């Protein structure tokens, strides 16, 4: 074990070990994020035996964890080769290229798990890009630049939140087949199933 510890701490193996550590972290984080979500959604909305439900939870958790682990590995590997090709220095666009490659290889298949992950990333990317634009205005000169920056901060989030909710409610109401299944099930539970009951028990305790 001491020899293993020495190898793990040896700087000359750092880049390779960082790939293994990234794969490990992807597995752990993916499992921690997906397992509770999959369990709750399966218990609430899926039909079948306990064994069938547990299998669904396991499969969703496995896919999420493996996808994230593989993506991390591809990203870090690509970044390593790009830095090496540039004399050990990272360029501004390297992370974009590495993310682009990893995203295509791992998340190009259109399935429920990938949709949820990609849409989560998309929403965060949009918000982050807006913040970057707002911060960029600070480098401008004069009252106009500061005013534009403040207006972006104050007005962007309410507009973004309102448009998101208005859009998804309209899509769910008139084109429910286009809404991601787990979100559609959640919305049906909240907005449709709350319209129906035939006893005090299923008014308070469970749905009809």
Description:
It is built from 8 helices and no strands. By secondary structure, the protein is mainly alpha-helical. The protein has helices at 2-9, 14-45, 50-85, 94-107, 112-137, 143-174, 181-192, 200-204.
Structure summarized in a few sentences:
With 208 residues, the chain is mainly α.
Q: How do the helices and strands line up, and which of them pair or pack?
A:
Blueprint: H1 2-9, H2 14-45, H3 50-85, H4 94-107, H5 112-137, H6 143-174, H7 181-192, H8 200-204
Query: Count of helices?
Result: 8
Strand count: 0
In sequence order, what are the helices and strands, one letter per element?
HHHHHHHH
Q: Considering DSSP H and I runs of 4 or more, what fraction of the residues is helical?
A: over 70%
The largest sheet, given as strand count, sense and whether it forms a barrel, is:
none
Bin the strand percentage. Answer: under 5%
| Rg from alpha-carbon coordinates | 23 Å
Separation of termini?
59 Å
The shape is: flat
Instruction: Provide the residue-averaged pLDDT.
Output: 88
The structural class is mainly alpha
The parts where pLDDT drops under 50 for at least 5 residues are none
Keywords:
208 residues; mainly alpha
